[in-house]
Design a protein that fits this description.
The complex is a heterodimer. By secondary structure, chain A is mainly α. Helices cover 54% and strands 3% of the residues of chain A. In chain A, helix 3 crosses helix 6 and helix 4 crosses helix 6. The longest helix of chain A is centred in the first third of the chain and has 29 residues. The radius of gyration of chain A is 17 Å and the shape is globular. The N terminus and C terminus of chain A are likely disordered. By secondary structure, chain B is of the alpha+beta class. Chain B has 16 helices and 24 strands. A 5-stranded parallel sheet of chain B has the order 14-2-1-18-24, with helices on one face. A 4-stranded mixed sheet of chain B has the order 10-9-20-21. In chain B, strands 7-13-8 form a 3-stranded antiparallel sheet. The longest helix of chain B has 32 residues. Chain B starts with a helix and ends in a 5-residue tail after the last helix. The chains are: A mainly alpha, B alpha+beta. The interface between A and B is large, with 50 and 65 residues.
Chain lengths: 158, 535
């Protein structure tokens, strides 16, 4: 069962990644920003695009978070953002219900299919974007190299 | 049966009889399972919790399938039971959206479902496999009327925007062509003695004959346009009566087209154990189960109860909660034991004094993204124009699935289909859109498969599970790593608290996982209670 699920799941990952590029290439020529980015577009998305297409699903378009039976934390005026490294660590490793957004080549099937992977440049970009928008005025910037340096310590985390 | 088979069966039975006589029924059963006689069912029959200590009580957090299963069985056994539920309704993810319903998601957007009378979508679970015996048991207990859920429809489609000019292919034809292609290749290779397999001449003949049947090959082992291939893939003109009745066979796809179109990527989905026919759905929507369960537990469930803290001591468990509609109204509920079914996405934010192992397990499971979008059209064009009655079309567009309703066939009024059911990157992105944008996007994309969409569309509702206030995600997303490290710790009773729900099962996202986890947990809690209540 596990194997079969994995097999068809991995097929879908390929197909989704491979096809959406062509499909939305045409759309993008006509409109500024497609509603849904293809796998390839996601792989090259800027910090702002990542926020608009992924992060705001939970943290909301104004980055003020929201409350239900639990909370999605606000990213606007959040003192935790004082540490760019903290924020990058959360994106890299995930935190509680928030999944890890690190690129994983070792996962297959369903485990791979349900994820979004961001590379170090993108993680730095989206951290920098959030820390300089939504009322945040941090001037220090995180670099892709800073994020890369955090990978080693990540391996031992759950 | 050949003589040989009969002899073999007889001798196998003899062996079983010997095992049964010497080691008792359990050994007999295990042996039968190993030899493929009896598949193990997780259904153990009606729950029997005898000898409940006088006055013993259980507090249950969450009135979804897990919580209500626990509440029902424990109450029947004689426990004093109280349930706290965040929503103003029972069921949790067992839920149907019907005309007149409203749904407010996180962020505050409220959707008003405008479906016509009798039409619905199930934003959560929507099908019941025939081997999910516990779910089927509770459906019968609750008097839920079940009807077939059409999973496989040979007349539904496989679609890729980049194959066949974006033209959807009938599952029937593509499936036949795939099998025909494989059969012909294999048959040819056998005929040319090119098959490097340990087969006797007799076996090779049998394989050839069976391939001819399986692949609908002609008498020269060819899969080609003609009577035999059209008997499975369909005709250009169907057989009929009288002078005009002569059928016209259809042209199979070339092997290159079969392979390069990559439609095989979704060809085998319905061969998965969970999707094998027969599947069922409750008449009127999956939510009928939760609604009926809620009625059964009338008076036990406190709705609009938002749990803010869970504290246990050596005598019992106290849940602190507030009225979800009026924050700040602090209340408490207390019992000897607690079955907590709150999704880990939320539980990980609620202070609770359990040990480090369970705390780490609760924090180790992120929640998967998924979107479901229901679309109402003026008429059931998929039936009227395309003769698609139920089933699923698979596509590589970000909507992933279009599922046609398995009920109300031939109705002349409006119809609702499932216009998107996706996960992964597509689902994250649908969650980032407003509900209206999600619906618009589903219509725009689906129109590539059914051009009737644009003209016939009326209204829609879109549930992106990360915006659901009562789950904050769709289901617990375990990995092999996290299961190894944390699963047992999640399921162990900690003091007087046990967790249950789909997240505490090997059936993620399935209601059967929620129900079996609840039955497993209450059995263990009961054993402790009977043993003198020592935590």
């Amino acid at each position: 069962m596990k194997t079969e699920t994995s097999r068809y799941a991995s097929m879908w990952v390929q197909v989704f990644a491979a096809t959406a590029l062509l499909m939305f290439g045409a759309v993008q020529a006509q409109t500024a920003e497609p509603s849904i980015l293809s796998g390839d577009q996601l792989a090259h998305a800027s910090g702002e695009q990542i926020f608009r297409h992924i992060c705001q699903g939970c943290h909301m378009p104004d980055a003020r978070g929201s409350t239900g039976a639990g909370n999605y934390p606000a990213l606007a005026n959040d003192p935790n953002l004082a540490s760019a490294q903290f924020m990058a660590a959360v994106v890299l490793n995930g935190r509680r219900d928030m999944p890890s957004f690190v690129v994983r080549h070792d996962l297959h099937g369903f485990e791979a299919m349900v994820r979004v992977g961001l590379d170090d440049v993108q993680i730095a970009d989206v951290v920098n974007y959030v820390r300089s928008h939504f009322g945040n005025h941090y001037t220090d910037k995180l670099s892709a190299a800073d994020v890369a340096a955090m990978h080693a310590s990540k391996k031992e985390s759950p | 049966m050949s003589d040989e088979q009969m002899r073999f069966s007889a001798s196998r039975r003899d062996v079983l009889r010997m095992i049964g006589l010497s080691a008792g029924g359990a050994a007999m059963y295990q042996a039968m399972t190993a030899l493929g006689f009896a598949a193990e069912s997780r259904y153990k029959g009606p729950v029997d919790l005898g000898g409940v200590p006088k006055g013993a009580s259980v507090l249950i957090l969450g009135a979804g399938m897990a919580g209500m299963t626990a509440a029902y069985e424990l109450r029947n056994a004689g426990y004093k039971v109280q349930v706290l539920e965040y929503n103003n309704r029972p069921g949790g993810r067992n839920w149907s959206l019907r005309g007149g319903d409203t749904f407010t998601e996180m962020g505050g957007a409220t959707q008003h479902c405008e479906f016509a009378k009798g039409l619905y979508i199930n934003p959560g679970p929507w099908r019941l496999p025939h081997h999910h015996q516990n779910m089927l048991h509770y459906c019968q207990m609750l008097g839920i009327q079940l009807e077939p859920f059409v999973q496989v429809n040979y007349n539904a489609c496989l679609h890729s925007e980049h194959a066949f000019g974006g033209k959807p292919q009938r599952y029937r034809a593509y499936n036949a062509d795939y099998r025909g292609m494989v059969s012909e290749l294999l048959a040819k290779s056998i005929e040319q003695h090119g098959l490097d397999a340990p087969l006797t001449t007799e076996d090779r003949d049998k394989l050839l004959t069976s391939l001819q049947g399986w692949g609908f090959l002609d008498n020269k082992y060819r899969y080609a346009r003609g009577e035999s291939s059209s008997a499975t893939r369909g005709y250009d003109r169907d057989p009929g009566g009288g002078l005009s009745g002569k059928p016209v066979p259809s042209q199979p796809l070339s092997p290159q087209d079969v392979l390069r179109s990559q439609l095989w990527q979704t060809l085998f989905i319905s061969d998965l154990y969970e999707f094998q026919t027969t599947l069922f759905q409750p008449v009127g929507g999956m939510g009928r189960i939760g609604e009926a369960f809620g009625k059964k537990l009338d008076g036990l469930i406190q709705y609009n109860a938002k749990v803010t803290r869970i504290a246990q001591d050596e005598h019992g468990v106290t849940a602190h909660y507030e009225d979800a509609r009026h924050p700040g109204t602090a209340r408490q509920a207390r019992a000897d034991w607690c079955i907590c079914t709150i999704p880990l996405s939320i539980l990980s934010q609620i202070p609770m004094n359990v040990g480090n192992a369970m705390t780490a397990a609760i924090a180790a499971v992120p929640y998967a993204a998924s979107t479901k979008i229901g679309l109402q059209f003026k008429r059931r064009f998929w039936e009227q124009d395309e003769h698609i009655y139920g089933g699923i079309t698979y596509t590589d567009l970000p909507i992933f699935n279009i599922s046609y309703p398995s009920s109300g066939f031939f109705d002349r009024g409006p119809g609702v289909l499932l216009g998107a059911y996706n996960w992964g990157p597509a689902a994250f992105q649908f969650a980032a859109l407003s509900p209206a944008q999600r619906v618009k996007e589903a219509v725009r994309l689906g129109n590539q498969i059914h051009p009737q969409y644009e003209k016939e569309f009326q209204n829609g509702v879109a549930v992106a599970w990360h915006r659901s206030p009562f789950t904050m995600g769709c289901f617990g997303e375990w990995t092999e790593d996290s299961r190894d490290k944390h699963y047992d710790n999640l399921c162990q009773i900690d003091g007087r608290i046990a967790l249950a729900g789909e997240h505490a099962s090997y059936l993620p996202a399935w209601q059967e996982g929620a129900v079996t986890s609840a039955l497993d947990a209450i059995g263990r809690v009961h054993a402790r209670a009977v043993a003198g209540g020592k935590a």
